[in-house]
Amino acid sequence: MNKKGKLFVVSGPSGVGKDTIVKKYLEKNDGHLSVSATTRSPRENEINGVDYYFLTKEVFENWIKKDNFLEYAVYNNCYYGTPKSKIEEYLNKGINVFLIIEVQGGLQIKEKFKDSILIFILPPSIEELKERLEKRNLDNKEMIENRLKIAEEEIEKSNKYDYLIVNRNIDSAVEKFSLIVNA
Ligand code: 5GP
Q1: Packing angle between helix 18-28 and helix 170-181, nearest 10 degrees?
Q2: Rounded to 5 degrees, what are φ and ψ at 2?
Q3: Which uninterrupted H or E stretch holds 22?
Q4: Most exposed residue of 7, 54, 76, 151, measured as fewest CB within 10 angstroms of its CB?
């Protein structure tokens, strides 16, 4: 019988570079990156079904009722959730699955999948995170302040995670990530 794939949860504050780390890892390694559903509006360049499944609140709540989610949470006044579809199938085929999700969802996954591996990406400092969010130019000042407040709350909960990686330099963060995943 095939060896089962592992389920990895990657969390960290907005702007910390978690998507970049996972995507760079997947350029050279096998694995399935789960596409989440959300009720937030798409940003410019985001594609429905690729970056997220963009749902209305009604549809999202209908998916909750139908038990379509592995986990879901409210973050920044919007719903975010991991659709169940195919994840177990990938794991059963021996393929690693990666979820890039916030902390409440990550801890729900750990409850349901005791073998899941939780990795938290930290910024070198809150000041540096603020600079990155400003440079990204996706959010206004109020949104950035809100993201920083959420970031501090998330960092407090990161002690429940299995591994912490400080993203000082993207290449060395990807290397540490690969060592953990391929261990
Ligand atoms: P953003 O709006 O910046 O794309 O995402 C906001 C936060 O929601 C990020 O921390 C992101 O990782 C998280 N997120 C994305 N998808 C999911 C999901 O399916 N479930 C949960 N719980 N969080 C998610």
Answers
A1: 60
A2: -60, 150
A3: helix 18-28
A4: 76
Q: What is the pLDDT of residues 117-169, one digit of tens each?
A: 999 999 999 999 999 999 988 888 998 998 899 999 999 999 999 999 999 99
pTM of structure: 0.95
- The C-alpha angle with vertex 100 and arms to 153 and 96, in degrees rounded to 5, equals 140
Give the length of the chain: 183
> Atom 10, ligand 1: which residue's CA is nearest?
102
Structure tokens given for 90: 């990938």
Confidence (pLDDT) at 104 = 95
For residues 157 and 108, is the Cβ–Cβ distance under 8 A? no
Q: Are 56 and 78 in contact (CB under 8 A)?
A: no
Report CA(1)–ligand 1 centroid distance (Å): 34
Residue with CA at minimum distance from ligand 1 atom 12: 101
151 lines ligand 1 (CB under 6 A): no
